[in-house]
Amino acid sequence: MTTDTPGTGPADVRQPVTEGSDVLRAEHISKSFGAVTALRDVNLRLGRGEVLGLLGDNGAGKSTLLKILCGFQPPDSGRILLNGEEVTLKSVTHARSLGIDVVYQDLALINELSVYHNMYLNREYHSGPLLNNRKMRALAKQHLADMGVGIPSVDVEVAKLSGGQRQGIAVARSVYSDAKILLLDEPLAAMGVKEGALILSLVRDLKERGEVSIIIIAHNYAQVLEVCDRVNLLQHGEITFDKASAETSVEELTDIVVAEYRAAMEARQKGA
What we know:
Helix content: 25-40%
Order of helices and strands: EEEHEEHEHEEHHEHEHEEH
Oligomer: single chain
Distance between the termini: 45 Å
Largest sheet: 6 strands, mixed
Strand order of the largest sheet: 6-9-10-3-11-12
Low-confidence stretches: 1-18
């Protein structure tokens, strides 16, 4: 993220996100499942129009945190603030009504349905008792074109599309359902280079528009630094690292994770 002062750089330079512009805050969030502590004291903030990369090893609690932020699971303790107001997210539907939506790895698409039916799944337009297929088809075509998601036709079954195209459809569905905060759970997982580039381009486009704030879970540090304004690292159920992408590097992030791994191995050996 560029931090040039106004007038010293290009006209489209994005200014640093400040705490006063936060659209979402999670404070002292904890969550346990029986004897397993997934989150112990998470403090996270997301600025308006910001793209935040959330990193961490498998089992670090990243997906659990996203499930809490989208209303799928309640935290054991802590609070969530939306535009400065404390909220209790009662369900995924409730969170969605407040402008928070999530795109999981499985995408929640129905293979046998067309692209445009998936775009409006559970959000259908009707003409009296009947589905307004003409309106949904036209809107789906327009929205996907606006976001640069290339598909052969909105009438094709999603089962016939690539992973990148399917991910793009799921993201577009959320954006055009008035989501203001978008949570992306491993959107680049199992993607080839071409498909991954499509998703990265989509995130960059959303960032340039500045209308949606995004938290993206990913493992590829280079990709995260490429598209994100800021990076958080989740370790031991806490956010242990919070820096602007422009102020860190793949090497620094790798060194932190490697050091943590070595420390854990040494602790195991001493306890053996």
